[in-house]
Amino acid sequence: ISVPKNNEGKNWNQGWEGMSYRQKVPTKPFTTYTMSMKVLNKDAEALGDYAFLYAMAGEHRQNEAFATIRFEEKPTGKWLEKSLVFQTGRHSHYTVLSIETRWNIGTLYIDDVRLEETGTLELGPWDQPVSMNRLLPVKHKFDRPDTAGVVKRFTAHHAASEKRYRGNGAWESRGTLSGKPGGEKQPPDLRATYQRVEGYLGAYAHTGRKIYLQRAIEGAEHLTRVQQENGIIGDAYYSSGQAGVALIHTWQKTGNRKFLDPVKRVVGHFNKVEPSWNYNYNMMLTEAALAWAKSTDNFESVSNRLKTEMLQSTLREQRPWGGWAGHNSRIGYHCANMSALCRLHETLPETKPFDDKRAILRRHVIAALNRMIREQVPAGGFPFNHGQPGTARQNSGIVPALIHVHETFGFEQARQLLYGQMTYLSTDACGKYYWLPRNRNHLEMSLLHSEGLYLEWARKHPG
Do 393 and 278 sit in the same domain of this protein? Predict the structure, then answer.
């Protein structure tokens, strides 16, 4: 692979873009393999890593890898060989080997790429396989949070929210949520709206305070106003999905079809858009489509799409330790995936042909919940990064996902994890990593969302 050193003009960035070579290889599920590759760097001037070997479960270029080998060594005139042992997923029947280069101006030689069913797998404590058939016992027990205390904290976060309210269902900009100056001059962030809609609906269900319902309706109306003709609300996956679910919940509370009909357009977008490499993006959009299908008794309108990578990549690429690799191992994305699987379980028609599919979904949720049981910290929260307890912090996806698991399957472990998370959210410990002091606005918005949802759940499940 050679990029001329005098490579200037219109092709000046050719080395930066790099090359990609791929081969799809049949492999066994849940099996140990060793991959290896040789590289000779003749004279490439590298900026950091310049050659890679990926073993991936999916065929999208950005798919999260089972394993990655990186080459960054300076030219020596000698071949350099590296190998790595990895384990395929429970549901992976092939592996895509991908050789990729970037950031190299000069000449590289690549040879002897191998994938062999051999090697000794060494897994850390966080990467040990979990059961898909039975739940682990919880590591930490927590008392049921004092509901009056949650109401008091929600009231305080509502007061803070009112100071940031711009009217007409809009709150802070992304810059303000991130603690950056000048945010008041930027357009409002949709996350600041759809998360508040959910929180306010939940708090209204518990307290009956009309201002909470009013703010939820105003927020939902804002979401309908910014929807594009093609059904997208904000971006094609993330906010379209979360806003769509918030609109369904607003329709359920108000009975007003002006909040239901826009979600049909989100479903139209869901049925046309190309699946993302990013499982949680697919799952957020899928959950909105499923919420609409359940509410309108229209499963057949979304069922064909569920046979594609929109859903299948998430099922296939769940790792044996219960979560998903790389970017999707972060706790919020993990919870988005888990919540969507719950939504599908409750949306599938209650007829015998779907019994096997429900059983499969239950197994995936058990594995995902086992990951959370194993990683919960003594204070009750969950690490933002997989296997790094020191990164525990609040994330808006945790409470709704645990509620969804409990209401779908009735797992007592989900209730206990929820108690722990709400206990954790009652102290500033939930914001010490990442949030405080710079991002207090975002933290308080996130807490309003979680507290409101918990209050509605607590009303449904007393004692």
Answer: yes
**Same domain as 116, residue 170:** no
Q: What is the CATH number of the domain that holds 368?
A: 1.50.10.10
Q: List pLDDT tens digits, range 300-355.
A: 999 999 999 999 999 998 999 999 988 899 999 999 999 999 999 999 999 999 99
Do 321 and 415 lie in one domain? The reply is yes
According to DSSP H, which parts of 317-439 are helical?
A: 331-347, 355-375, 398-409, 412-425
Query: The domain containing residue 80 runs over which residues?
Result: 2-122
Residue 49 falls inside a structural domain: yes
Q: Counting Cβ atoms within 10 Å, is residue 302 exposed (0-12), middle (13-18) or buried (19+)? A: buried
The model carries a pTM of 0.92
Cβ neighbours of residue 63 under 8 Å, at least 6 residues apart? 56, 57, 96, 277, 313, 317
Query: Which one-letter amino acid corresponds to residue 10?
Result: K
Three-class SS of residue 57? coil
pLDDT of 79 above 90: yes
What are the tokens at 416? Answer: 């206990």
Residue 368 and residue 341 in contact, taking contact as beta carbons nearer than 8 Å: yes
Residue pointed to by tokens 């239950």: 362
**What are the contacts of 411-415 at 24+ separation with CB within 8 A?**
411/135, 411/369, 413/135, 413/136, 413/137, 413/138, 413/369, 413/373, 414/369, 415/461
Q: What's the half-sphere exposure (Cβ side, CA atoms, 13 Å) at 333?
A: 20
pLDDT tens by residue, 14-61: 556 678 899 999 999 999 999 999 999 998 876 678 888 988 877 665
**C-alpha distances in angstroms, 295 versus 264, 265, 298, 305, 344?**
11, 15, 8, 18, 13
- 287 and 348 together in one domain: yes
Terminal-residue alpha carbon distance, the chain: 67
Q: Is residue 129 part of a domain?
A: no
The answer to whether residues 295 and 387 belong to one domain is yes
Whole-Å CA distances, 191 to 40, 50, 177, 194, 285? 48, 37, 10, 5, 15
Contact between 433 and 391 (Cβ < 8 Å)? yes
What is the mean pLDDT of the segment spanning 229-244? 98
**Mean pLDDT value across the chain:** 94
Instruction: Write the pLDDT tens digit of every residue in 264-282.
Output: 999 999 999 999 989 999 9
**Last residue of one domain, picked from the residues 76, 105, 122:** 122
CA-to-CA distance for 369 and 374, rounded, in angstroms?
9
> Is the per-residue pLDDT at 13 higher than 70?
no
Asked if residue 167 belongs to a domain, the reply is yes
Strand-pairing partners, residue 67, are 55
Of 89, 122, 155, which residue sits at a domain end? 122
Q: What are the distances in angstroms from CA 299 to CA 21, 281, 347?
A: 40, 21, 7
Q: How many domains does the chain have?
A: 2
